[in-house]
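Recap for those who missed Tuesday's class. We walked through two folding examples back to back. For each one, the amino acid string is listed first and its predicted structure tokens come directly after. Nothing is annotated here on purpose, so try labeling regions yourself before you check the end of the notes.
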Amino acid sequence: MRLDVPAGLAACSGCPDPLAYSSALDDVRSVFSDLCSVFAGQGGFNFVVAGFGEWRATVRTDLMVVLEQLPAILAALRTEQPAELDFFEQGLQRTVWIRTAGGEVVLSCTSRLPSWTPPGDEIRMPRAELENMLKDLAQAFLDAASVACPGMASHPWLLAWANELTVRGHGKEEP
């Protein structure tokens, strides 16, 4: 899983006003939604999800729902608890189940659509590899936001989310 960012990305027009959010009506998901919409409208961004076949994941919706789940998934990995990554939006409607087994994780996938069945039962990989993949996805998103919508990249909700992840350059780095 990764976010491909267009080469030569520059500041985008149409970035939302970071002061326009209401703490009564919005949260970090609103920031994700707006940034993912800007990225999708800009073109050249590609959200790649593979492992159980290559999926047609979208920047506008699928990336957004993955980003909001990252803190809970990374916390579960750190504490060796099971987790799920739910692609619940219309289109994919799949869940990746994550179980830890010592230094490894075991991934399995289910679909809510009868037209798609995952190829293969499970994927095993080092836990650190999955953690790094998820952190790299978050870092690519934050780096793109810093360039495309610099005002949004310093929004307190986005900074708090990044701190939960302990992503490089945003929050405390884990040893």
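Example two. Treat it independently of the first, because the proteins are unrelated.
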Amino acid sequence: MQKSEKISLRKIERIPVFEYFCLGIKSLLSGNICTFTHDCSLWCWNYIDNLWNRGDALFLYSFLPHSSDFFSTIKKSQFSIKKNSYLCAMKQKGVVIYLLLVFLLFGLWITNLMFGAVSIPIHEVIAILFGKGSEQVAWQNIIWQSRFPQAITALLAGASLATSGLLLQTLFKNPLAGPSILGISDGANLGVALIMFLLGSSFSLYSHQSIGGSLVIMIAAFVGAGCILGVIIFFSTKVTNNVMLLIIGIMIGYLASSMIAILNYYASADRVRTFVLWGMGDFSGVSNVRLPFFAVCTLAGLTIAVLLIKPLNALLLGEAYAANLGVKIKQTRIWILLCTGLLTATTTAFCGPISFIGLSVPHIARLLLGTTNHKLLLPVTILSGSCIALFCNILSVFPGTNIVLPLNAITPILGAPVIIYVIVNRKNIHYFM
């Protein structure tokens, strides 16, 4: 090497890389391996990068025959280390959020059992839950026949609606997509309207003791939602563009709404009032007898959603990229529609149309995690949906009184501010690629 090419040791000593080394040792002693790896990579890269920028790369060339390959390898390895550190931090954050949501879910579920329209002492509730019984037989019936199935229903319905919203927002890449966007909820409303307006008041929602009571209304809502779902799936095989499919779903919803308006116009005042009350949503319509069927349907839909995690992550990158990864776009779209249809139809049939939970909860989960990776996002969405539904159920009941507010009067109070925030800050929130 010539004299001009010789490296200056004093020049290297002035490079401030020792600070990164000290940070790495400190992280290692504290037991944080991810931070130690990150700091050490910064130390090594800062040292080499300073040599390169100062014109001292000839020193490296004298020892490395293929320095250009070496530097590209170093850059790739640094990116890989940073990526692994980021994933490690995200997993740690996800675990913390999971645990917090599980504790919150358990607390809200217990609160739903403790408080209601009828005032029951807390120690009596605890005794009833642990099987010790109570002198008041009516209190036992309230806990086991009313509050317990209502809490389970709220938990499963919230998870179902939130999952449906997440799947549809990912499929259509639209942050304002929800369970009602494809007309499935309108199909359930149409089925109930046909029963209530055409077959008479004997099919009233609250005639639980008659065979033509709420059970027939649930079946009608399920059939109506299923018919609309079948139409949507048929069009999904004919239309390849998701935006066009979304527009078709909206138009089908308008058609169902127009038929409901015609039936509503010619119906009597009592039937219209019954239909309006059903449309306000309620978690108390599922008894212990119907709860197993409701739970099986919702858990089946949630299981399908979990199995769709990998295709959903691929769809975030675009349909063309997902197809190159081996994802069958048409089949995946049909499975997503089947899953959302099953979850939405079941929830609407048993609980009525519930607004804003499916629309706002996926955004809450994304804001909590700061990621669109469905491996982390879907469990948080399920837990958050259950927590929001249980919390809304608590707010709809004034403890110790007979006042019960409609569920759809509570959900917009929590959901509307979230949607407004997302719309206002949409440029700063990168959900979809």
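Answers for example two:
The chain has two domains: 8-85, 115-428.
Residues 33 and 101 are 27 Å apart (CA to CA).
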